[in-house]
TrEMBL record:
PANTHER family: DDE_TNP_IS1595 DOMAIN-CONTAINING PROTEIN, SI:DKEY-17M8.2. Pfam families: DDE_Tnp_IS1595. Residues 153-296 form the ISXO2-like transposase domain. This is ISXO2-like transposase domain-containing protein. SMART domains: DDE_Tnp_IS1595.
Length: 318
């Protein structure tokens, strides 16, 4: 996973100059989309020929690189280089069978429009359901990368963090007619007075898992209000007593429903992202990352920019 190739000043300048509204994204033609992708490093304008090392320029109409250089061969005969490469090679769009304009508009719909979106995309573009689902999984992988990149610890001296768990999933009916429960759990923390938060899937509902999350994502000196202490039977555990003593973290039980109102509102917003019949346990991390990305970039016009900055970092065109 390579580091960002952009400085803070370059990203700020690029954000200001390429801010796109939702209608503008849907109206962009192929040339405008190519310019946008070149500007963000998703595609390359020039590459070196792998055979003769000649510098090749992107053919914008056919989205490829082709070398026409002629060179000397045996018996003074001149031959033409036959090197050819798609402009999508190695990029985010490399294995996609969806044309570039449609794919770009799908990403815009995913970033701007609240769900459900799948049926709308099926009817508007005539794309198969499986292709849409696979594309969504790729988009959420980008969100996971962005979330890991910008992950910061919450709280600090005098700060209060609300901590609460939530359950996702349902009972699925299989071909044999029996119901099989498919549930998973996640825990979220929100810092009062700021937009700082985290939402992460938990593999086991026990004290050890909760302790690891607190150490990783919450700063010393924080006051944590949660109803998890009783659920996980944590208050009498020596590890939690040691954590409170060494890190000066105060573990407090909620006295009223209002004590956890902020994190509960955030969980309600998360559930609006996990639409319909819920999600599979192995997809939950992607849904949580999608919510965190959209919460981080409340200005809708910035989402396309930051999404494609991350795409360029993860998928470097060859």
């Amino acid at each position: 996973m390579k580091n960002s190739v952009y400085s803070v000043e370059e990203i700020k300048l690029c954000t200001e100059s390429c801010s796109k509204t939702f209608p503008q994204c849907l109206e962009m033609d192929l040339d405008e989309i190519i310019d946008f992708l070149l500007k963000h490093g998703v595609l390359k304008l020039y590459i070196d020929c792998k055979k003769c090392h000649n510098k090749l320029k992107l053919n914008r109409k056919q989205l490829n690189f082709k070398c026409y250089a002629r060179y000397s061969h045996q018996k003074k005969k001149r031959k033409q280089c036959t090197f050819f490469q798609s402009a999508k090679t190695g990029s985010f769009f490399y294995k996609s069978k969806i044309d570039l304009v449609t794919h770009f508009q799908m990403i815009a719909l995913f970033l701007f429009k609240r769900g459900p979106r799948q049926r709308f995309i099926e009817e508007k573009y005539g794309i198969a359901q499986d292709s849409i689902v696979k594309s969504y999984l790729l988009y959420r992988d980008i969100f996971i990368y962005i979330n890991e990149k910008f992950e910061t610890k919450l709280g600090g001296n005098g700060k209060v963090v609300e901590l609460k768990e939530a359950q996702f999933g349902n009972c699925r009916v299989r071909k044999d007619g029996n119901r099989y429960p498919s549930f998973c759990w996640a825990i979220g923390g929100v810092e009062r007075g700021s937009n700082n938060c985290f939402f992460t899937k938990i593999e086991m509902r026990n004290c050890e898992c909760l302790l690891a999350i607190i150490k990783k994502l919450i700063l010393p000196g924080t006051t944590i209000i949660s109803d998890c202490w009783k659920l996980y039977n944590c208050t009498n555990k020596s590890d939690f007593q040691k954590l409170s003593f060494e890190s000066d973290i105060k573990l407090i039980h909620p006295k009223t429903k209002d004590d956890l109102s902020i994190v509960e509102e955030s969980w309600a917003d998360v559930r609006s992202v996990v639409m319909g019949k819920g999600c599979r346990p192995n997809h939950l991390t992607g849904y949580l990352a999608e919510y965190l990305f959209k919460r981080r970039y409340l200005d809708l016009n910035e989402r396309m920019h930051h999404f494609f900055i991350a795409v360029a970092e993860l998928y470097e065109p060859r």
